[in-house]
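Hey, weird one. I pasted the ABC transporter permease sequence into the form twice and got a warning about non-standard characters only the second time. First submission, copied straight from the form history:
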Amino acid sequence: MIEHLIPILAVTLAAATPLVFAGLGELVTEKSGVINLGVEGMMLIGAVAGFAGALQWGVFGGLICGALGGMLASLPFAFLTLSLGTNQSATGLALTIFGIGLSAFIGQFFVSQGLPGLQPLRIPLLASIPFLGPILFTQTFVVYLSWLAFAIVAWVLARTRWGLILRAVGESPDAAHAIGYPVIRIRYLATLFGGAMSGIGGAYLSTVYTPLWVQNMTAGRGWIAVALVVFATWKPGRLMFGAYLFGGMTILQLHAQGLGIALPSQLLAAVPYVATILVLVLISRDRKLLQQNLPASLGKPFISN
């Protein structure tokens, strides 16, 4: 049993990595009071930009291109919502539609092309630890990069002045503006950071996880990332747990038939998304928990006088 469990858990970490990147980016964006529902579109633009970059400069270059692609995709959203005051939810949905179309158009030039992929890094000594070693310490460097991103985001939000300012802007932008903080600029930076992280998540899919370009390859992961922020009640630690939980469900549905579970493949493929809906329904019933952590100005435009 253990010999079957170890590869499943190891692949779960890899499958959850794009959710970690995109979820952390959306978490920071929402902490500033901005809700961006365009994560799916930004991930797709990051995926095609990352694949194009990886063809020229390798996986690391592809990740940088993906981050830049996601950041550029978030810029029109930031301008429309923060500078012009458009509705954030509607603009985010428009960004997703735009990202799906633009990535499909650009990606047609990369169909049937492939990348060599990325070999896992086996960390000496740690990889030899029974059970945990093969799971945690034989991953690609991008998985370790996601752990580093989590540690930095969690530390900045909880322990630094920057994190305090970001949370203040998300809770009471009028008060933050009154004491001299540039609310719009901070929200721009948070939105661009969210776009960059979503782009890295998309680039990971096209350059490492499945090193090729496939139209609409995110397959709803952007929406799951948005849902994870609510699932986590805007806390980075819970977001990481949720990402690996949903990543595990994705992998289990792939291994289900091999484990002897006789269910239609279409039903098994829907399991992660059904689980997302169920979790959100359960969490939404605890309104006290949501209100305690929900940024007070989330989704509300700010207009300086």
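That's the output from the first submission. The warning seems to come from a hidden character in my clipboard, not from the data itself. The chain has one domain: 2-293.
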